[in-house]
Design brief:
- The protein has helices spanning 25-32, 36-47, 85-89, 91-101, 134-150, 177-190, 208-215, 236-245, 265-269, 272-284, 327-338; strands spanning 3-15, 19-22, 56-61, 105-110, 157-158, 197-204, 223-229, 250-255, 289-294, 296-297, 314-316, 323-325, 344-349, 355-362, 365-372, 378-382, 385-389, 394-398.
- By secondary structure, the chain is α/β, with parallel strands linked by helices.
- It folds into two domains: 1-16 and 343-400, Sandwich (Immunoglobulin-like), CATH 2.60.40; 17-341, Glycosidases (TIM Barrel), CATH 3.20.20.
- An eight-stranded parallel barrel has the order 2-3-4-5-6-7-8-9.
C-alpha cells in the first residue's frame, strides 16, 4: 500500500535558511591535528557550495562536555579577571578559518555560569544561578560577546542556557520558567547596542507547547523565538501547535547527535534515518534552520573529558592524522543538494514514520524531496506519481 503525501500549496512557511553545526573545543582540537591542506579541504567540505554549505555555527560560552577539560573565563564575581585566552588556542582559530569561507550566523550558548555565580559553586552537576547574580551574569555574557567582537566574530543569537532542565555530570545549570524569563530580561538590557537577539529554551521538544506559553508570556524586544534539541523525539504535533499559535517567532533546531558505536560505514549509514526524519519534520512544522552537534570527532567519539562519546558526520581516522566523511555526512550533503538554503518552504502532510518529505516552491512550480527512513522498501504516492524507495534512498521529483 502506498504512503500518500499531500503537498499543501496553501501553506507557505517562509524561507529555509539551511544547515549548520557546532565548533566545540573537541572539534577544533581535532581540526588542529590536520595538515593545513587537509584543514582547507575540510572547511570546504563543511562550508563550500559542493559540500554541506553550512550557513550557521553554534559555539559554547565556556566549557561543555566536549572539551579536553573544564575551564572558566573568570573565577571572581567582580569579573575583573575575565578573559577568553582559552578559546584562542583552538576554537577561535578554526572559527576564523570558517569565517574566511563564509559569513556565518552564529548561535552561542552557555552550559553553565562560572562557578562563583552559582549556588553550588560548581559548574558541573546542575545547581542554580544565585538569585542576586542575574545582572552580574548578564554582564558576563556581554563581556564574552565584546571579547569575541574584538576578534572579528559577530554573534547573531544567544541562548540563556543549554538544556535548562538537565542536571548533568558535565557543565549544567537548572532554571525554572520564571528564572529563564528573568534572565532573558537582564540579557536584553546587557545586549543594548548590539544586533544580537535571544533564542529561548535550547532543550527538548517533548513539552514545547507548554514551554512556549511559559517563556513567551512576557514581552521582551530582544527575544526572537525558540530553539530546541532532538533527544526526546521529533514531536511534530508540539512543533506545529507552537508555529500556529506564535507564527512570527523564529524556530530552529540547535542540537542533534546519535550515540557512539565503533566506526562501520554500513552501521553508521542507518544514522541518516533520524536526521532525515527530524530535519524534514521540523521544516514542515515551522523551523527555518537545523544545527547538528559536533562537526568533527576522533575515532573514539571525542575527546570528551566526561566520556560522553557520540557520532559526528566527520571523524578522524584511527591514526588521527586525516579525516573520514561518514555516511552521516553523505546524508546531510544529499539533503542539502536537494533542498538548499533559500528554498521557499511548502508544508507536506503524510501519515507515516517510514518516510520523510518536504516541498518547496520554485519559479516553475513545486518540488518534493522524499526519503525512505525505514528498513524496507516503501511505495509513495504524490499527486498522480507513484515511486518506490529503497532503504536510505532520498530523491526529488517535480509535481505534475
Amino acid at each position: 500500500m502506498s504512503i500518500k503525501i499531500i503537498v499543501r500549496k496553501d501553506i507557505e512557511l517562509g524561507t529555509w535558511q539551511g544547515l549548520g553545526s557546532a565548533i566545540t573545543e573537541a572539534t577544533a582540537y581535532n581540526f588542529s591535528k590536520l595538515s593545513k591542506e587537509r584543514q582547507n579541504k575540510l572547511i570546504d567540505a563543511f562550508y563550500g557550495k559542493n559540500g554541506l554549505d553550512y550557513h550557521r555555527c553554534r559555539l559554547s560560552i565556556g566549557s561543555n562536555d566536549f572539551c579536553l577539560e573544564p575551564y572558566q573565563y573568570t573565577r571572581r564575581a567582580s569579573l575583573r579577571d575575565f578573559n577568553i585566552l582559552h578559546d584562542k588556542r583552538w576554537v577561535l582559530r578554526m572559527l576564523k578559518k570558517a569565517l574566511q569561507q563564509k559569513d556565518l550566523q552564529i548561535i552561542a550558548s552557555p552550559w553553565s555560569p562560572p562557578a562563583c555565580l552559582k549556588t553550588t559553586h560548581l559548574q558541573r552537576f546542575g545547581g542554580h544561578l544565585k538569585p542576586w547574580r542575574y545582572r552580574t551574569y548578564a554582564r558576563y555574557i556581554r563581556k564574552w560577546l565584546d571579547a569575541y567582537g574584538e576578534e572579528g566574530v559577530k554573534i547573531r543569537y544567544i541562548t540563556p542556557q543549554n538544556e535548562p532542565r538537565a542536571v548533568q555530570v558535565w557543565e549544567s545549570c537548572v532554571y525554572s520558567y520564571r528564572a529563564q524569563r528573568r534572565l532573558a530580561k537582564h540579557l536584553a538590557s546587557a545586549l543594548e547596542g548590539l544586533d544580537t537577539e535571544i533564542l529561548l529554551w535550547d532543550h527538548n521538544k517533548k513539552e514545547l507547547t507548554e514551554v512556549a506559553d511559559q517563556l513567551l508570556k512576557e514581552s521582551n524586544p530582544k527575544v526572537a523565538g525558540l530553539c530546541y534539541h532532538w533527544y526526546e523525539g521529533t514531536c511534530p504535533e508540539q512543533m506545529w501547535q507552537v508555529r500556529q499559535k506564535y507564527p512570527d517567532i523564529t524556530m530552529l533546531g540547535s542540537e542533534m547527535c546519535v550515540g557512539f558505536s565503533s566506526y562501520d560505514p554500513k552501521d553508521w549509514a542507518t544514522a541518516a534515518n533520524p536526521y532525515y526524519y527530524e530535519i524534514m519534520s521540523d521544516i514542515n512544522t515551522g523551523a527555518i534552520a537545523f544545527l547538528d552537534w559536533n562537526m568533527l570527532l576522533d575515532w573514539h567519539g571525542g575527546p570528551s573529558y566526561c566520556q560522553n562519546y557520540v557520532k559526528s558526520p566527520v571523524i578522524l581516522n584511527e591514526k588521527g592524522d586525516d579525516f573520514i566523511l561518514t555516511p552521516i555526512y553523505d546524508a546531510l550533503k544529499k539533503f542539502n543538494q536537494l533542498y538548499p538554503a533559500g528554498s521557499q518552504i511548502i508544508r507536506c502532510d503524510y501519515d507515516s514514520k517510514d518516510i520523510a518529505a518536504v516541498a518547496r516552491k520554485t519559479k516553475s512550480g513545486y518540488e518534493v524531496v522524499v526519503a525512505n527512513v525505514s528498513n524496507g522498501e516503501q511505495q509513495v504516492k504524490i499527486g498522480k506519481q507513484t515511486l518506490s524507495l529503497m532503504p536510505l534512498e532520498i530523491t526529488k521529483l517535480k509535481l505534475d
